[in-house]
Amino acid sequence: MIAVYPGSFDPITYGHLDIINRAVNFVDTLVVAILNNPAKKSLFTVDERKRHIQILTKDIPNIKVESFSGLLVDFAKENNANIVIRGLRALTDFEYEFQMALTNRELNKEIETIFIPTTLNNLFISSSIVKEIAEFKGDISKMVPNIIEEELKFRYGSK
């Protein structure tokens, strides 16, 4: 069974890694799919995000890290995946993710979405919050791995 875990991962957080580490336990292959959205201003390039994820998941044998643009259902089909993994932090996430799951199902009836709720200690973490705290020189050490923290400090001139 192949699943796709899509996201911008700009940057990858402990919340993302929690979902990855739990999802790999019930699929044969997990494709971490980095969305390349030219309309969205990203801090890290797709190649940088891919490198970050590869480094942080190097000990997980059943992971592939890819990037995509376009429709998620098309990417899933190209990768022979019939499952989409989505992490949930709060009820507000669920409303949006539920709508996306129904849309994806309408576009491709073979695609199922599995929601994985985050652990309590990751409930408040989001990439945008991490970037905002880093920009203002706040402590993000409990939100992202050291490699990401160091790159954010460099980007925002803290180092």
Based on CA inertia axes, which overall geometry fits?
globular
Outline the biggest β-sheet.
5 strands, parallel
Query: Percent of residues in beta strands?
Result: 15-25%
- Proportion of residues in helical segments: 40-55%
The rounded Rg comes to: 15 Å
Estimate nothing, just give the exact number of structural domains: 1
Uncertain segments:
none
3D architecture notes:
With about 160 residues, the chain is α/β, with parallel strands linked by helices. The protein has one domain (about 1-120): HUPs (Rossmann fold, 3-Layer(aba) Sandwich), CATH 3.40.50.620. The chain is about 40% helix and about 20% strand. The chain is built from six helices and five strands. It has helices at about 15-25, 45-55, 70-80, 90-105, 125-135, 145-155; strands at about 1-5, 30-35, 65-70, 85-90, 110-115. A five-stranded parallel sheet has the order 3-2-1-4-5, sandwiched between helices. Strand 1, helix 1 and strand 2 form a beta-alpha-beta unit. The protein is globular. The termini are far apart. The mean pLDDT is about 95.
